[in-house]
Amino acid sequence: MLKKLSLLLFVALAVAGVPLAGLAQATFRQVTYVADSGGTNVAFITSPAITLGAGDFVHVSCRTGFGSTKSIVVRSNPPNAFNPLPIQAGGPGSQQSSYAMNVRPGPTTFTCAPNAPAPYQSMIVLHYSVPFGSGALDKWVGSTTPAEPTYTSPSFSTSSSGAELIILCGTVASTDYAFTAGSIGSLKTTLRGVSAYSLQAHADAGCEDAIATVPQKLIKGRITYGESQPWAVTVGTFVLKGPAK
User: Fold this and answer.
1) Is the dihedral of CA 141, 145, 150, 154 positive or negative?
2) 26: closest CA among 139, 135, 129, 160?
3) Where are the domains of the chain?
């Protein structure tokens, strides 16, 4: 009888969209950004400060206007250990995502520094509160594509038996239109930040996210821009741990 009740509770939580891995969850806290830096080559860009909590998770997306950029290093002040995902270079320029787990608390700024000075740099920083130790990378995919209004990622699956935070960040070769959230599989997907003062503003980069409470099989991520543009995009999936008992 107890096993049957447990199974019914599991199914009810899944239908309601409640994370099942010990009720693991990620709470989106805030976004900061650096708008397009313009056509002059600069060595780096630095964000305004945001206040982090101890053990939080931070995801940073950097872009340059050069398709030849080989890497974009993320640093923070005070220092945190950022892990880069492979750069997506070509098409509209270059885009690279990096993430940091278990960050230090307090006001923090973020810097994107390409391997060589570059024009048209911008940045999006996403900040989440998560159970301590959350944020380990599970899977990533990325690509550059020819001009199209909606980017579609390569297929990917998640391998964790629990909840995962999925973040898609991409850039186009324009600041003339706005981004809108696309889809990440069949999950509820939210536009979280753009490289401008509001989600409705014209920008050259955008980020969206979704929470998967059960493993995902061969899904794709999509994001839309206001006109057909070439894309450079990275999708990362990050494992969420349950809260401490």
Assistant:
1) negative
2) 129
3) 24-239
